[in-house]
Each structure stands twice: as C-alpha cells, then as structure tokens.
Specification:
The protein has two domains: 155 residues, Rossmann fold, CATH 3.40.50.2000; 153 residues, Glycogen Phosphorylase B (Rossmann fold). It is 35% helix and 15% strand. The chain is built from eleven helices and twelve strands. The strands form two sheets. A six-stranded parallel β-sheet has the order 2-1-3-4-5-6, sandwiched between helices. Strands 9-8-7-10-11-12 form a six-stranded parallel β-sheet. α4 links the parallel β7 and β8. It is elongated. The protein starts with a strand and ends with a helix.
C-alpha cells in the first residue's frame, strides 16, 4: 500500500454534504490512501509516519485537539506535504503553520511561494510551479438527475439561495433579496439567517437539502460570487454543478461573466440570463423550465472523468517534482 494519507480535520460521514469532506473521501479512494478524519484507538495515524500527507483544507476550529497536534507532528516528520485547497479563505491550522515556518523552513500560508509544501488548488494562480496543480474539486458535486425525472410544473416558485452569508457577497444579497418583488427562499445556518431576514423579512427559511432531489424542488437561483473572485479566477462554485445537476435555473449576475467565460471558453459568451437587478430576475422567472433545460444542454459534459484526469496528472507531476 502507498505510504500516504489524506487528512480532514472533521469527520467525513458517508453521505456528507460538506465539500471539503467529499474531496477528502475522493482522494483517499482515488489514491488508495488512508483517510484520517478523527483520532480513534488503533487507527494508524497515531502509530505510523507517512511519507506523503495530503491535508485537505477544513475547519480546524471544530477539530479534536489531539488531531490538531498529531497532524502537526506528522508534518514535522513527513517527507512531503500536499495542501489540498477548495476554499481560498481557509488557511492551514496554527499548529501546522508553526511547524512549517519554525521547524521546516517551508511556506506556511497559501499561496505558498516555495515547495514543499505542494498545493493542489481550484485557484490556478495559487498552484504554479513544479508539483503544484490546478484541480477543479467542485466537479465532484456533478450528479445529474435525468430531466424527465424532475417535476418542473410543481417547483417552489421564486428565487432560492443556499449557503452562508459571506460579507464579500453582501452587495449582491441586497440587490436580489432586499424588497424583492418575488418570493425569496433561503437555506443557511442559524447565525446567518438573521442577516438574510434583515434584507427580506418575508423570506421563507428551508432546511439544508440532503440530496439532488431535494434541491430539484426549487425553480431558480441567482449565481453570484465573492468580489475577490472577479479578479482572481476560481473554478465555478459547487452550486453551479449542483444546480445544473438538479435542473434549477441559474440567473447569472453580470459580475460573474469573467469567471464563466474563463471556465467555458466558447460557451461563456452564451450565458443566459445575465441579470443585474431584481427586476431582471422577475422578468426571467416565468421561463425557469426553459432556462434549466437549455443550461443542461449547453453545459452537459462528463465532469467526473475530467476530475479523475486532473487528479492523475496532478499525482504524476507531484511524483516527478518530489523525486
């Protein structure tokens, strides 16, 4: 067996909807590696030194204290570290940064300016240099429902949004949710819901969806991104591939055009509808079924094979760079 492990700082349940946990599971399966997502008696992480560690960016604040310390100790002893990044806002935990900086003399914050550590990121500008790789981890969320199995006539009407209340998206939340002339549906965590309610007091709150079938019950969503991404290309978000899979019509805020044109050369110019106001959304909503069908046709592709190919190339290039 390869002497490598994949580390995620919180538990990866078999049916997890957490993006970083799905990435960790995928890598462990694809590379035939040990998956460490908690300290358990008898697990090899406590009794073994790995040559290569793939550390998936994850929420260290929720990790077991012993796991944080053990990860730092493993990185103190390993030959190679690959930092797997699917969220540009997440940095390695402080214990790891300290070892990288003070003991190994390696880069300790992304974007890393030297290797090791290596980085496999869905942000190309963070992944230049030998052994580093651009990998679109968001492709992992592609799980299409056949359109004939979607009940378009009985979808929840209005505009739906799911996810956290990110400060960098606030101008767009205000644009599409404040005094909206259509029903607003929000799925988010407990702390963020009050911020959405302040913009749209009459909004309807929904629980987190557990499957593509749950997501497919909604008619439409607005596709927005952090302002930072306008000038620092990042792969299209998970919600793009999820909504495409679920037959949910996407209305693209005009600020996302650079991202989409970069992601889909030759297709990005045909994005529709591009919106810039709540009035634009109101005008597009009645044609949600037509839009969802045409978007599925425009962007249909074998995305999971693309992900496999990108991962294979990343691993092969890493092996050459680390020799």
């Amino acid at each position: 067996m390869k002497n490598i492990c994949v580390v995620h700082l919180t538990y990866c349940s078999p049916k997890t909807s957490i993006a970083s946990a799905r990435v960790a599971q995928y890598l462990a399966n694809h590379l035939n590696a040990d998956l460490v997502d908690g300290i358990q008696r008898g697990r090899p992480f406590l009794h073994h030194t790995y040559d290569t560690i793939l550390y998936v960016n994850s929420m260290g604040a929720f990790a077991e204290a012993e796991l944080r310390l053990e990860l730092a100790d493993q990185i103190r002893r390993c030959k190679n570290l690959i930092y797997v990044q699917n969220d540009y806002t997440v940095q390695p935990i402080s214990q790891v940064q300290k070892v990288l900086r003070d003991e190994r003399g390696w880069s300790f914050k992304q974007p890393f300016d030297t290797t090791p550590p290596f980085i496999w990121s869905n942000i190309p500008e963070n992944a230049t240099g030998p052994g580093n790789a651009y990998v679109n981890w968001n492709l992992l969320t592609w799980d299409p429902i056949p359109l004939e199995q979607i009940d378009f006539k009985n979808k929840v009407q209005g505009l739906m949004y799911y996810g956290s209340y990110r400060k960098d998206r606030e101008p767009y939340f205000k644009r599409y949710f404040e005094d909206a002339p259509y029903p607003v549906h929000i799925s988010t965590n407990g702390k963020a819901i009050e911020k959405f309610k302040a913009l749209a007091p009459n909004m309807t709150r929904h629980g987190s969806w557990k499957s593509m079938k749950d997501l497919s019950k909604f008619a439409a969503t607005v596709y927005i991104e952090d302002e930072h991404i306008h000038t620092h290309y990042n792969s299209p978000a998970n919600r793009f591939y999820e909504c495409l899979s679920a037959g949910v019509a996407m209305f693209f805020d005009e600020s996302t055009s650079n991202t989409m044109k970069t992601a889909f050369p030759g297709k990005g110019d045909y994005l529709f509808p591009v919106v810039n106001s709540a009035e634009d959304v109101l005008e597009a909503l009645p044609t949600y079924e037509q839009i969802a069908r045409e978007q599925r046709e425009l962007f249909k592709h074998d995305y999971l094979t693309d992900l496999d190919d990108q991962t294979i190339v990343a691993w092969e290039n890493f092996l050459k760079a680390s020799e």
